[in-house]
Write a structure and sequence with these properties.
Blueprint lengths: L1 H17 L3 H73 L5 H46 L7 E6 L2 E7 H4 L9 H15 L6 E6 L13 H18 L8 E5 L12 H7 L1 E6 L3 H9 L15
Parallel strand pairs: 3-4
Antiparallel strand pairs: 1-2, 2-5, 3-5
Length: 304
């Protein structure tokens, strides 16, 4: 009886395995291998993105710590000076070297120094906030554009100003100011980031090498640099909806090179279009106009 049960179980197992054809098995194995490969690739990309985020955060934290250290040192020095000044004033009073009115005048002068010190701290705080916003803007631009060759597009911060340099090899054909299809895609990504920052104003600059240019209505490199700048401006306005009052178009011709024009590579680097994120100076003017505590007049910036 047991033997019959064993034979029946074996025949059922054989019937189940025979339902799956070798072809379907191979197809399933191939699909599994493909999905597994895609999974491994996505894991690698995720690790790369996480590493880039950690590197950027570390650089920002280092810069923030440096500012905080400088501010702390200046605060300590200011407090020490205030203590010394108060001690000297009390000593002078005790020795009757100065009159009461003179002591009051010195006291007001010391208060004015304290107000200027507060002004300097406010200005440093505004600069630190501006640097933080610039860093966030650069990271957003790099994230939107992706891993393009640095020879074609370069985003940097120099002396507190954000610059986006795009090579004319990407934007235009040689001797032309008609924008290429590839450039439209890149400019669209830049425009998306700028549209998310509606308070930012910027300038589009055209630059050339030192090779003389004349074609049709264009007289020289001045004309060519201006026409290329206005071509980019029109695209940003008409196709990507950037408010035109935020944009300035400028041509710099050959007179602001970033490399020597003595080599082909240098000439190629100089032929570029630059987008300059203009600093928001009104924030600093508002800071200057803010009345300080204890007085009705704004405190002027320290003399140079």
């Amino acid at each position: 009886m047991k033997l019959q049960y064993l034979l029946l179980a074996g025949s059922c197992s054989l019937a189940l395995f025979s339902c799956v054809s070798p072809k379907k098995l191979r197809e399933s194995e191939a699909k599994y291998s493909q999905l597994n490969g895609a999974y491994i690739e996505l894991q690698g990309k995720l690790r790369d993105c996480e590493q880039q985020g950690r590197d950027s955060s570390a650089a920002f934290a280092k810069r923030k710590a440096l500012y905080e250290s400088r501010l702390s040192n200046m605060t300590d020095q200011s407090e020490m000076l205030k203590q010394n000044n108060s001690q000297m004033l009390n000593q002078l009073k005790d020795l009757s070297v100065i009159s009461g009115s003179q002591a009051e005048s010195i006291k007001k002068s010391l208060e004015n120094i304290g107000a200027k010190d507060a002004y300097i701290k406010d200005l440093q705080s505004a600069i630190a906030r501006k640097d933080s916003l610039n860093m966030a803007l650069v990271m957003n631009l790099k994230g939107a554009i992706g891993n393009l060759d640095d020879k074609d597009i370069n985003i940097k911060v120099d002396k507190g100003v954000v610059y986006i340099d795009i090579s004319d090899k990407m934007l235009f054909k040689s001797g032309s100011y008609d924008i290429t299809d590839r450039a439209k895609e890149v400019l669209g990504k830049v425009a998306a980031v700028l549209n998310n920052q509606p308070n930012i104003e910027f300038m589009v600059e055209g630059h050339t090498d030192n090779v003389p240019y004349r074609s049709g209505v264009l007289l020289d490199n001045w004309d060519l640099s201006v026409k290329r700048a206005t071509s980019v401006v029109r695209l940003l306005q008409n196709q990507y909806g950037i408010t035109p009052s935020r944009i300035t178009a400028a041509g710099r011709s050959e007179y602001l090179p970033v490399a020597s024009n003595d080599t082909p590579d240098g000439k190629a680097a100089n032929r570029r279009t630059r987008i300059v994120i203009l600093p928001q100076l009104d924030q600093f003017f508002k800071l200057l106009e803010t009345p300080q505590a204890g007085g009705s007049q704004p405190v002027p910036p320290p003399a140079k």
